[in-house]
Amino acid sequence: MKKFIIIILGLLVLQSCKKGDAENNESGEQAEIIEEKPKIIEEFGFILNNYKVIKDTIRSGESFGEILDRNHVDYAEIYKIAEAAKDTFDIRKLRAGKPYMILAKKDSTEKAQVFIYQPNKVEYLIVDFTDSIQTKFGRKEVKIVTKKASGIIASSLSEAIEKQGLNYILALEMADIYAWTIDFHHLQKGDNFKLIYEEKFINDTVPVGIGNITAAFFEHKNTPIYAFNFVTDSVKKVNDYYDENAKTLRRKFLKAPIKFSRISSRYNLKRRIKYYGNRIRPHRGTDFAAGIGTPIMSTANGTVIESRYRGGNGNYVKIKHNSTYSTQYLHMKKRAVKKGDYVKQGDVIGWVGMTGNTAGPHVCYRFWKNGKQVDPLREKLPSAEPIKESLKSDYFEYIKPLKAEIDQIPSITIEAPLAVN
Ligand SMILES: [Zn+2]
Hints:
The protein is an alpha+beta fold. It has seven helices and 24 strands. Strands 13, 16, 17, 18, 19, 20, 21, 22, 23 and 24 form a ten-stranded antiparallel sheet that branches. Strands 3-4-5-6-7 form a five-stranded antiparallel sheet. Strands 8-9-10-11-12 form a five-stranded antiparallel sheet, sandwiched between helices. The longest helix is centred in the last third of the chain and has 20 residues, at 389-408. It is extended and about 85 Å long. The site of zinc ion (ZN) has 5 residues, from loops.
């Protein structure tokens, strides 16, 4: 009887080490289980089997000291650890919700030896105070896997992406690639896309983000547009998207929002105005003078993100062209578009007026790049040039297999009900 109990105890100990394995060891298979060795689990360079492992997430308001205190490290040592770690990582910057791991002694003291914190899925911080105190950052190995996807639009692109459990970033990237050529707010039922893209993984299974879209295909109103990402300057790492004829998918901005106008005031950060006591009043726009009622055009395709009346701006419209560029048009007599509208280059968005803070009829044209106002007359704006002649044969060689590959991706017909809005 005594012998039997010992075997049972042995089993229990083994089982607790094999945490996570399926519980397939009911009575009758004792011999087999006893022979099985616990699997060696290595993570962050530590053999976890040698420790009592505590995995948790930082709670709101919880400090490094509290965590270590709970894991049997005394305050004098916590202080020393915090001081030693200071140069590598400020322990006050632990963020609630982020995972951490404590490796503690397996003996009865259960004293923490190592603290591992993961500010994001790729990076980790190790504070090892087993003997001396060592702090270091590490990065998990990121593997890039080429993936394929396709979809048919039932109501929106993001829905077609998300219905399939694909990363929503793909929808944003596609919207950017085709920002100058497709109106994503007016997609039609039956529009469809195919993609070849890179996805990043750690530990082979955990997705940590999207890399480049290598090739894309989008059919809008029965017109297919291919997009291939091609490096045009490997030294400067310049790449861009071109179609199957080596034409760029970008479009140039119009030089001016009004036809037959003259510039009455340029972008000038050091402008002085008499009216304001000759003080510097930077002018971050370009003024185009024209008669009241002259049509104002959008200088590129985009989505209206603001259309309203406000203070010195008067009636104004702001248009987002892609994730980099937006333009804004001030002092309109009347606006012709509303927030959410998609406009094409040259579309009339309003008429010249004198609303807001202005001395005469003009449109103040403001140009935004990455959230900052710049001078469009000096800025190097996206060119709409095709690939250089000298690169063309390389390009066609490069896209040949990609085009064949993308053409072979079957269309996925997950039909989602057409959204009513
Ligand atoms: Zn102005």
